[in-house]
Write a structure and sequence with these properties.
By secondary structure, the protein is an alpha/beta fold. It has ten helices and eleven strands. A hairpin with a 4-residue loop joins β6 and β7.
Length: 272
């Protein structure tokens, strides 16, 4: 039976929100850095990985350079790639805050992690802070994993994190708005009442977060869309890309993963 006009419009709207959610959260790099300025557990984890494995290191989805700058500050060479010019511009500003000798250890490149070909190999490849959750289908994920694979040395490691699927959040009513803490938006120089609502596409396994910013005389909305990966599905995708699972934790402190874990933190070895 053919879908009704209303169903067709609903599907089109959902796809539009997914598309917006792929980039809107990253268009305002000042806001991004402000919101996540206290997030340090992942930075500390990847710095320790860098110290353990040494350089050179490749970061997929370098963003504003939170992780890359911390690694360069330890005297370790790192190349960071990102598809969002605004994020790279902020990363360059962070890079300039490093001492000159360490600034030279941090290289930044605009690029698509699915298509990356740097013609060199790295001892460690990392993809922090849910980068892979913006790969919305199997083909995109596989291409990104294979990109990581071809840039690794024979005994190198690939480390990344994604969220553990929160089944309870998938059942939230899409029309319900959750009041969160007020948020300051640096580019606009003002505070906003902040709300979130959630819609889960169970077929594509994509959760769409709608973020509403409201003041007395101004309001705007942004979207964030993230592909949800279940543990066995993720392990199978890594195996298909010729990785072997070395370690898997439920957080950055090394806790065993379970249904209440906030994240899936994986360290993979290379199969040739």
């Amino acid at each position: 039976m053919s879908p009704s006009a209303a169903e067709t419009r609903a599907v089109a709207a959902l796809r539009a929100h997914i598309e917006r959610g792929a980039h809107e959260h990253y268009d305002d790099a000042l806001y991004y850095d402000h919101v996540y300025k206290r997030r340090r557990e992942d930075v500390n984890f990847y710095v320790q990985m860098a110290k353990q494995w040494g350089g050179p290191i490749l970061e997929l989805g370098v963003g504003t350079g939170r992780v890359a700058a911390a690694i360069a500050a330890e005297g370790i060479e790192i190349t960071g790639v990102d598809a969002h010019p605004a994020m790279l511009q902020q990363a360059e500003a962070r890079q300039k805050g490093l001492p000159l000798a360490k600034r030279k250890l941090m290289r930044l490149k605009l690029g698509d992690i699915r298509e990356l070909r740097l013609r060199r190999r790295f001892r460690l490849v990392i993809a922090p802070f849910n980068v892979l959750m913006h790969l919305y289908d199997h083909d995109d994920l596989h291409r990104a994993l294979r990109s990581a694979h071809r840039h690794l040395e024979a005994r190198g490691r690939f480390a990344f994190d994604v969220l553990m699927p929160d089944l309870r959040s998938f059942l939230r009513a899409p029309e319900r708005r959750y009041r969160c803490r007020d948020i300051f938006v640096p580019a606009l120089g003002r505070r906003y009442a902040y709300y979130e609502s959630f819609r889960y596409d169970s077929v594509r396994q994509i959760q769409i977060v709608r973020m509403d910013f409201v003041s007395e005389d101004h309001a705007f909305t942004r979207y964030l869309s993230q592909r949800q990966f279940f543990p066995q599905e993720l392990e199978a995708a890594c195996h298909r890309a010729r990785f072997r699972l070395e370690e898997r934790w439920g957080d950055f402190a090394g806790s065993p993963p379970d249904i209440d874990s906030p994240s899936q933190v994986l360290v993979l070895g290379v199969e040739r």
